[in-house]
């Protein structure tokens, strides 16, 4: 019958799926065991493809940042110009 299981309450919150956990552990093990080969393979790939591959991996290490918006309607033009000048100096883009 649809929707009926041996555990009508389902898996408790926070308890990972056993299949997902074991698959992640397997993938982690394969990657750990093949690190040197992966590095060699990456070196053999064209720089553009290497960058694309690394970019895809980064999303699993570094969380994506949310775009930030700033309301500058209450800031005067002089204050805004001063902030822009300070940022420009700190980035080394001085004239």
Low-pLDDT stretches are none
Q: Which secondary-structure class do the elements indicate? A: mainly alpha
State the helical fraction. 40-55%
State the end-to-end CA separation: 74 Å
Q: Cα-atom Rg, whole angstroms?
A: 25 Å
Report the sheet-strand fraction. Answer: under 5%
Q: How does the overall form come out from the CA principal axes?
A: flat
- Largest sheet entry: none
On the 0-100 scale, what is the average pLDDT? Answer: 83
Order of secondary-structure elements: HHHH
Number of strands: 0
Distinct helical segment count: 4
Quaternary: single chain
Characterise the protein shown here.
There is one protein chain. The chain contains 4 helices and no strands. By secondary structure, the chain is mainly α. The protein has a domain of 49 residues. It is flat.
Short descriptors:
single chain; 95 residues; mainly alpha; 4 helices; 55% helix; 0% strand
Brief account:
The chain is an all-alpha fold and 95 residues long. It contains four helices and no strands.
How does the SSE layout of this entry go?
Elements: H1 18-33, H2 35-44, H3 47-58, H4 77-90
């Amino acid at each position: 019958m649809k929707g009926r299981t041996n555990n009508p309450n389902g898996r408790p919150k926070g308890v990972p799926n056993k299949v997902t956990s074991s698959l992640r552990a397997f993938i982690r093990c394969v990657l750990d065991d093949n690190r040197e080969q992966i590095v060699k393979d990456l070196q053999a790939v064209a720089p553009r493809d290497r960058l694309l591959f690394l970019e895809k991996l980064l999303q699993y290490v570094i969380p994506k940042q949310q775009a930030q918006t700033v309301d500058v309607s209450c800031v005067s033009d002089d204050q805004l110009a001063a902030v822009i000048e300070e940022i420009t100096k700190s980035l080394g883009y001085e004239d």
